[in-house]
Universal stress protein UspA
Amino acid sequence: MYDQILVPTDGSDTAEEAVEHALDLAERYGATVHALYVVDTNAMSLSLGGEQLDRIEQGHYGEMDEVRERAEKATGYVADRAGELGIDAVEHVSAGRPHDMIANYVAHNDIDLIVMGSHGRTGVRRALLGSVTERTLRSTRAPVLVIDSDNE
Ligand code: ATP
Ligand code: MN
Protein backbone atom coordinates (compact mmCIF):
# COMPACT_ATOMS: atom_id res chain seq x y z
CA MET A 1 0.00 0.00 0.00
CA TYR A 2 2.73 2.46 0.97
CA ASP A 3 5.93 2.29 -1.08
CA GLN A 4 6.96 5.94 -1.34
CA ILE A 5 6.43 8.03 1.79
CA LEU A 6 6.97 11.80 1.71
CA VAL A 7 7.94 13.78 4.81
CA PRO A 8 7.89 17.50 4.11
CA THR A 9 10.09 19.09 6.76
CA ASP A 10 10.92 22.63 7.80
CA GLY A 11 13.37 21.31 10.40
CA SER A 12 11.02 22.10 13.31
CA ASP A 13 10.62 19.83 16.35
CA THR A 14 7.11 18.96 15.21
CA ALA A 15 8.32 17.95 11.75
CA GLU A 16 10.98 15.81 13.43
CA GLU A 17 8.26 14.01 15.37
CA ALA A 18 6.53 13.33 12.06
CA VAL A 19 9.80 11.86 10.78
CA GLU A 20 9.65 9.15 13.46
CA HIS A 21 6.16 8.13 12.34
CA ALA A 22 7.24 8.11 8.69
CA LEU A 23 10.26 5.94 9.47
CA ASP A 24 8.26 3.46 11.50
CA LEU A 25 5.81 3.04 8.64
CA ALA A 26 8.63 2.83 6.09
CA GLU A 27 10.23 0.07 8.11
CA ARG A 28 7.02 -1.94 8.28
CA TYR A 29 6.13 -1.46 4.62
CA GLY A 30 9.67 -1.65 3.21
CA ALA A 31 9.07 1.81 1.78
CA THR A 32 11.43 4.58 0.69
CA VAL A 33 11.24 7.85 2.63
CA HIS A 34 11.49 11.12 0.72
CA ALA A 35 12.51 14.20 2.72
CA LEU A 36 11.44 17.47 1.10
CA TYR A 37 12.41 20.92 2.30
CA VAL A 38 10.86 23.87 0.50
CA VAL A 39 12.64 27.21 0.52
CA ASP A 40 9.55 29.27 1.23
CA THR A 41 9.50 32.13 -1.23
CA ASN A 42 6.43 33.57 0.51
CA ALA A 43 8.32 33.94 3.76
CA MET A 44 11.64 35.17 2.43
CA SER A 45 12.42 38.82 2.73
CA LEU A 46 14.49 38.79 -0.43
CA SER A 47 12.40 37.97 -3.43
CA LEU A 48 13.99 35.40 -5.70
CA GLY A 49 13.71 35.34 -9.45
CA GLY A 50 12.76 32.25 -11.43
CA GLU A 51 16.38 31.65 -12.33
CA GLN A 52 17.42 31.58 -8.68
CA LEU A 53 14.61 29.13 -7.88
CA ASP A 54 15.88 26.79 -10.59
CA ARG A 55 19.40 27.05 -9.23
CA ILE A 56 18.25 26.07 -5.75
CA GLU A 57 16.47 23.04 -7.24
CA GLN A 58 19.82 22.06 -8.75
CA GLY A 59 21.69 22.53 -5.49
CA HIS A 60 23.41 25.80 -6.44
CA TYR A 61 22.89 28.30 -3.66
CA GLY A 62 25.51 30.88 -4.62
CA GLU A 63 25.70 33.39 -1.78
CA MET A 64 22.69 31.93 -0.01
CA ASP A 65 24.69 29.95 2.57
CA GLU A 66 22.08 30.27 5.29
CA VAL A 67 19.38 28.96 2.99
CA ARG A 68 21.52 25.97 2.08
CA GLU A 69 22.37 25.28 5.71
CA ARG A 70 18.78 25.26 6.85
CA ALA A 71 17.64 23.12 3.92
CA GLU A 72 20.39 20.54 4.25
CA LYS A 73 20.00 20.33 8.01
CA ALA A 74 16.29 19.58 7.67
CA THR A 75 16.57 16.88 4.99
CA GLY A 76 19.87 15.56 6.37
CA TYR A 77 18.19 14.85 9.70
CA VAL A 78 15.74 12.55 7.94
CA ALA A 79 18.45 10.84 5.90
CA ASP A 80 20.59 10.26 9.00
CA ARG A 81 17.72 8.77 11.01
CA ALA A 82 16.73 6.59 8.04
CA GLY A 83 20.34 5.44 7.66
CA GLU A 84 20.45 4.36 11.30
CA LEU A 85 17.44 2.14 10.66
CA GLY A 86 18.54 0.83 7.26
CA ILE A 87 15.69 2.59 5.45
CA ASP A 88 16.18 4.00 1.95
CA ALA A 89 15.92 7.79 1.89
CA VAL A 90 15.87 10.45 -0.80
CA GLU A 91 16.58 14.12 0.00
CA HIS A 92 15.16 16.94 -2.07
CA VAL A 93 15.10 20.73 -1.77
CA SER A 94 12.86 22.92 -3.84
CA ALA A 95 11.83 26.55 -3.81
CA GLY A 96 8.40 28.09 -4.10
CA ARG A 97 5.19 28.00 -2.09
CA PRO A 98 5.56 25.00 0.23
CA HIS A 99 2.13 23.42 -0.39
CA ASP A 100 2.50 23.81 -4.17
CA MET A 101 5.91 22.21 -4.15
CA ILE A 102 4.69 19.41 -1.89
CA ALA A 103 1.73 18.66 -4.21
CA ASN A 104 4.06 18.83 -7.18
CA TYR A 105 6.52 16.40 -5.63
CA VAL A 106 3.70 14.00 -4.79
CA ALA A 107 2.48 14.01 -8.37
CA HIS A 108 5.90 13.43 -9.91
CA ASN A 109 7.32 10.82 -7.53
CA ASP A 110 4.49 8.30 -7.07
CA ILE A 111 4.10 9.31 -3.44
CA ASP A 112 1.39 7.24 -1.76
CA LEU A 113 1.52 8.73 1.74
CA ILE A 114 2.45 12.13 3.18
CA VAL A 115 3.46 12.36 6.84
CA MET A 116 3.81 15.89 8.24
CA GLY A 117 3.55 17.96 11.40
CA SER A 118 0.48 19.89 12.52
CA HIS A 119 2.74 22.89 13.13
CA GLY A 120 6.13 24.14 12.10
CA ARG A 121 8.68 26.81 12.84
CA THR A 122 6.47 29.86 12.74
CA GLY A 123 3.36 28.37 14.23
CA VAL A 124 0.75 30.05 16.31
CA ARG A 125 -0.38 27.27 18.66
CA ARG A 126 -3.92 28.66 18.76
CA ALA A 127 -4.50 27.54 15.19
CA LEU A 128 -5.48 23.88 14.88
CA LEU A 129 -3.27 23.40 11.86
CA GLY A 130 -0.45 25.43 10.34
CA SER A 131 -1.09 26.95 6.96
CA VAL A 132 1.27 24.65 5.06
CA THR A 133 -0.49 21.56 6.40
CA GLU A 134 -3.94 23.01 5.80
CA ARG A 135 -3.10 24.00 2.23
CA THR A 136 -1.43 20.66 1.52
CA LEU A 137 -4.65 18.87 2.53
CA ARG A 138 -6.48 21.00 -0.02
CA SER A 139 -3.86 20.55 -2.75
CA THR A 140 -3.44 16.79 -2.96
CA ARG A 141 -5.54 13.65 -3.00
CA ALA A 142 -2.80 11.54 -1.44
CA PRO A 143 -3.48 10.38 2.13
CA VAL A 144 -1.95 12.72 4.70
CA LEU A 145 -0.98 11.65 8.23
CA VAL A 146 -0.76 14.74 10.45
CA ILE A 147 1.30 14.44 13.61
CA ASP A 148 0.33 16.85 16.39
CA SER A 149 3.16 17.83 18.62
CA ASP A 150 2.66 17.71 22.37
CA ASN A 151 5.07 20.63 22.93
CA GLU A 152 2.82 23.48 23.96
P1 ATP B 1 2.45 28.90 9.71
O1 ATP B 1 3.61 28.59 8.80
O2 ATP B 1 1.13 28.76 9.04
O3 ATP B 1 2.63 30.17 10.45
P2 ATP B 1 3.42 26.65 11.27
O4 ATP B 1 4.83 26.98 10.86
O5 ATP B 1 3.20 26.29 12.71
O6 ATP B 1 2.39 27.79 10.87
P3 ATP B 1 3.17 24.86 9.02
O7 ATP B 1 4.13 25.76 8.32
O8 ATP B 1 1.87 24.53 8.40
O9 ATP B 1 2.88 25.37 10.50
O10 ATP B 1 3.99 23.51 9.30
C1 ATP B 1 3.35 22.27 9.46
C2 ATP B 1 4.18 21.17 8.83
O11 ATP B 1 4.31 21.44 7.45
C3 ATP B 1 5.62 21.04 9.36
O12 ATP B 1 5.70 20.24 10.54
C4 ATP B 1 6.27 20.37 8.17
O13 ATP B 1 5.95 18.99 8.16
C5 ATP B 1 5.57 21.04 6.97
N1 ATP B 1 6.27 22.22 6.46
C6 ATP B 1 6.10 23.50 6.84
N2 ATP B 1 6.90 24.33 6.16
C7 ATP B 1 7.61 23.55 5.29
C8 ATP B 1 8.61 23.81 4.31
N3 ATP B 1 9.07 25.04 4.07
N4 ATP B 1 9.11 22.76 3.61
C9 ATP B 1 8.67 21.51 3.85
N5 ATP B 1 7.73 21.21 4.76
C10 ATP B 1 7.20 22.21 5.48
MN1 MN C 1 5.35 27.38 8.82
Observations:
- The chain has five helices and five strands.
- Residues 10, 120-122, 130, 132 surround manganese (II) ion (ligand 2) (CB under 6 Å).
- The first helix runs from residue 13 to 29.
